[in-house]
């Protein structure tokens, strides 16, 4: 078990060191992950994923890549939106999370979903192959934020859509303070009482502190080369949904 100091330090890690930490962390919390998400979000996480799928414009026959797919919750929702004529590929660092995802897809009988263990910064997927790339609570855990966004642009088709759900920080200071206390005090306690890895959830709280807020991430997306960047604040700004498009004539190549 890591210490709280390790969790705070880990939130500042970058590159391969952060990826190793994140892989081990999610391997530890794979089994209770879905249950804790329901509890922590007050059951809203499912609705937020539905909103992300709607915002993406996913339709029958679309090709979707879900980076940081975790237990496959978002991949399953996309699979229903694209239908059997579509294709959904989930990518994640954690083998244990992918094992949960595989079982979930098997039970649902979704033959057009596949999973692969890999890095969101270097997926190995073909360039310009996806209509949609999604990330649900993944981007802030990437070892290199800019490399991950470059990879998203690389695998998107021209005009393709990137949608992202992640933690954020409310703009109104008193509300921001309340959510800070919730992340750092309440959330780890919820994990502890649920029998989960308390230290892992300390890291998730700290990682939010060092991640761009909603408007900041809009700026990062524009700087990375996306067009049509927009966002929506959820849960009083503690969660943000971003949507952006790959230009029709992008500068990004293989």
Helical content class: 40-55%
Total of helices: 10
Strand-residue proportion: 15-25%
Average pLDDT figure: 89
- What is CATH's topology name? Rossmann fold
Instruction: Give me the side-by-side strand order of the main sheet.
Output: 3-2-1-4-5-7-6
The secondary-structure class comes to: alpha/beta
Architecture per CATH nomenclature, i.e. the level-2 architecture:
3-Layer(aba) Sandwich
Topology as a string of helices (H) and strands (E) = HHHHEHEHEEHEHHHEE
CA(first)-CA(last) distance: 40 Å
- Main pleated-sheet profile: 7 strands, mixed
How would you sum up the global shape? globular
Regions with pLDDT < 50 over 5+ consecutive residues?
1-5
What oligomeric state is this?
A: single chain
CATH level 1 name: Alpha Beta
Would you identify the CATH H-level superfamily?
Vaccinia Virus protein VP39
- Count the domains: 1
Total strands: the figure is: 7
Give Rg in angstroms.
17 Å
Question: Your description of this structure?
Answer:
It is a single chain. Helix 7 links the parallel strand 4 (130-136) and strand 5 (156-167). Residues 1-5 have low confidence and may be disordered. A 7-stranded mixed beta sheet has the order 3-2-1-4-5-7-6, with helices on both faces. The protein is 48% helix and 20% strand. It starts with a helix and ends in a 9-residue tail after the last strand. Helix 1 packs parallel to helix 9 (198-209), helix 4 (45-56) packs across helix 5 and helix 8 (173-193) packs antiparallel against helix 9. It has a single domain (4-245), classed as 3-Layer(aba) Sandwich (Rossmann fold), CATH 3.40.50. The protein has helices at residues 4-10, 15-29, 33-40, 45-56, 73-82, 95-108, 145-155, 173-193, 198-209, 214-224, and strands spanning 63-67, 87-92, 113-117, 130-136, 156-167, 227-234, 239-245. The chain is an alpha/beta fold and 254 residues long.
């Amino acid at each position: 078990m890591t210490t709280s100091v390790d969790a705070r330090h880990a939130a500042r890690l970058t590159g391969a060191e952060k990826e190793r930490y994140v892989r081990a962390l999610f391997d530890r919390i794979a089994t209770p992950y879905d249950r804790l998400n329901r509890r922590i979000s007050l059951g809203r996480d499912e609705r937020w994923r539905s909103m992300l799928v709607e915002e993406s414009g996913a339709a029958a026959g679309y090709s979707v890549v879900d980076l940081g797919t975790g237990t496959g919750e978002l991949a399953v929702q996309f699979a229903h939106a694209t239908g059997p004529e579509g294709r959904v590929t989930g990518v994640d660092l954690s083998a244990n999370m992918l094992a949960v995802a595989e079982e979930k897809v098997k039970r649902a009988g979704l033959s057009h979903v596949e999973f692969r263990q890999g890095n969101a910064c270097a997926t190995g997927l073909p360039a310009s192959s996806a209509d949609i790339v999604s990330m649900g609570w993944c981007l802030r855990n990437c070892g290199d934020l800019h490399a991950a966004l470059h990879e998203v642009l690389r695998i998107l088709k021209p005009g393709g859509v990137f949608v992202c759900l992640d933690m954020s920080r409310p703009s109104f200071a008193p509300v921001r303070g309340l959510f800070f206390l919730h992340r750092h005090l309440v959330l780890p306690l919820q994990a502890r009482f649920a029998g989960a890895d308390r230290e892992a959830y300390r890291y998730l709280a700290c990682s939010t502190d060092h991640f761009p807020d909603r408007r900041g991430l809009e700026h990062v997306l524009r700087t990375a080369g996306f067009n049509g960047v927009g966002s929506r604040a959820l849960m009083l700004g503690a969660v943000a949904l971003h949507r952006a498009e790959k230009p029709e004539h992008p500068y990004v190549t293989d």
